[in-house]
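Methods — Computational structure assignment.
A single polypeptide chain was analysed. Its primary sequence is given first, followed by the predicted tertiary structure written as structure tokens.
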Amino acid sequence: MLIDTHCHLNKLNILENARLAGVQRFINIGCNINESIAAREISTNLSDVYFSAGIHPNDSIIADNDYINKLRRILKDKKCIGVGECGLDYYRNSNHSIQKKFFESQIQLAWDFNKPLIVHVRDAYNDCIALLKDSHHLRGKIIHCFSGDIKDAYNFLNIGCCLSISGIVTFNNSKKFHDIISMIPMNRLLIETDAPYLTPVPYRGIINESQFIQLTLKKISEIKFMPISEIIKNTGQNAMKIFWPEDPLSI
């Protein structure tokens, strides 16, 4: 099953193109309270669209004091299948203490609600690993749009994380990721678009869509010397076990 495990659906008309390209499920990611509520509304009448709810690290500095209770209410929805996008981003946001506070609270929410944790990390790998290393009790930890080095990859894998690969792998300057993707065990690999961001080659410069996940698949299959069908099968099984463990298709 081909699943876009991380996208931001801002236009519903793009879903049909993705379905025609073989995408069977979508996880629409919430990065703040308003986005999480909007993602919930979109999922209500679409059987193949699910959502997550969280506070992105760059949104942590503007979140109000009641954010945790608001997230709790959203996380109770039956189509909410993950906590996040949360994590640490030191590239743009220098308030590390607030980011850590929000990240820790969402790690706890993932435990409280028995939902996978969807993690954003940029220029904060050591701190992120330090906060996640004792969270072995969580149902799943996904490092979304992994873009670290091979040491970071090993460190995340060693604490039980899955690494999700986006269209970055198709970029002309992405050669360093090839060795990383080669070493990721197939049972720890996920695939995503992060649409409408990170449009893969050769469509750089236009808005990304879930249908372009096929380009990322093609590149991963070349790097791993595996048929695209095997990449779809393995990443789909991984996603099903993490996000839909009770679904018969996850067995």
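Note: The first strand starts at residue 2 and ends at 7.
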